[in-house]
């Protein structure tokens, strides 16, 4: 039956809004991509965003030197390509400009400052109930900014990077120097001359170290495990693109072997510099454990030249010092935790067996985009922007199909009823 079934008076809270179409939670690239595909097909929606702008991860929580790692054709969102004059690897600012243009082009106007506190499927009425709080108190005069949205479809687009991961270490509170997460790092400008411990060797850790070098700081990079580092380009071609082409013809283990062969030709043996490779190949590891290989844009050369020093796992901190598992102790001025992120879905999505405890859909790629009862997940395939775009297209198609079916029925039987439903 068409979108909103009649709820009993008892089940409707005082401040409640029935939504004609899906509610999309999150106005990052994933949420925008779903919204654009729906707009393109004439399906109404609302987007809820806890921040005060679109793509806050990109606008507020990334460093200045950030460029997209993959070539532009893989990072553009559905239905609107990047401008022709964008370089092969667009900068962070160019990507933000594109997203602003994208939102404008598809008339996507998220409801900003609206944080989803909980979402649950109400079996009785067969609808989703999404409770939010508006941090500006904008919705009400009485200061109670809580609102409940009621909808038939719920699209989770809150991202793989919703919360920072900061491990606990003995003695960190007595360390005394500056301690931040990489999401707060903008540039090495404020670290000139400092000895900086960068914890983590993912793409963030590697690039922060490189940036610190460019600002004459002295980075020490904590590498506690094996890691796959690949050159961003191989013989002038993007490594990612090459992998995509090879995977069309060859099994993944063989593509891994080829990529590792190229990596060896470019970097040589990295073990003597403290970087060992996992026994599983980079693509296989990505597929099985979701671990992203690092795409190198110059860090390896700085490790080889000794400008970036690789250190093992941390044992403890003490005032002005870090001690490592091999017993060595070094003086440091600052610490940057480039220790990654986690999904926040378990903190607000209730009673769903679609997501596992780690906040990712239980079904692995490519089946993790659709749950039951109108629930969808976009951008959780651990496949970056290309993965999010693919999810978005599938989700929108699925909703459009149902929407059309239901509006057809609604037109026939419930035309009057529909006009009574509050629409956003
Ligand atoms: C430093 C960095 C660089 C990256 N570079 C690349 C790259 O070059 N290429 C690539 O493919 N990927 C890259 N990524 C991965 C990145 O996560 C994706 O590109 C992209 O941002 C994912 O989009 P998203 O919309 O799924 O998630 P996000 O961009 O994180 O958007 C999720 C949105 O949901 C909102 N939200 C969360 N919880 C709630 C809530 N409870 N209520 C309301 N709103 C909520 C957030 O505020 C946010 O706006 C990078 C990540 C980082 C951290
Ligand atoms: N230019 C770009 O495109 C770009 C730039 C930055 C980030 N990104 C993307 O953003 C996402 C997040 O990347 P990220 O680098 O921030 O996070 P990440 O890939 O999750 O890497 C986190 C790193 O921290 C390490 N770590 C975690 N806990 C630790 C501990 N207690 N002690 C020592 N090390 C610890 C991890 O090591 P273990 O492996 O041992 O757990 C790993 O090396 C990824 O998808 C990445 O590709 C892209």
From TrEMBL:
Cofactors needed by this protein, per the record, are: FAD
Q: Which GO terms describe its biological process?
A: auxin biosynthetic process
Q: Which Gene3D superfamilies match?
A: FAD/NAD(P)-binding domain
Write the Enzyme Commission number(s) for this entry.
1.-.-.-
Q: Which UniProt keywords apply?
A: FAD, Flavoprotein, Monooxygenase, NADP, Oxidoreductase
* Reactions mediated catalytically: indole-3-pyruvate + NADPH + O2 + H(+) = (indol-3-yl)acetate + CO2 + NADP(+) + H2O
GO MF annotation, one: indole-3-pyruvate monooxygenase activity
InterPro entries the UniProt entry points to: Auxin_biosynth/cation_transpt (IPR050982), FAD/NAD-bd_sf (IPR036188), Flavin_mOase-like (IPR020946)
Family assignment from sequence similarity = Belongs to the FMO family.
Name of the protein in its database record: Flavin-containing monooxygenase
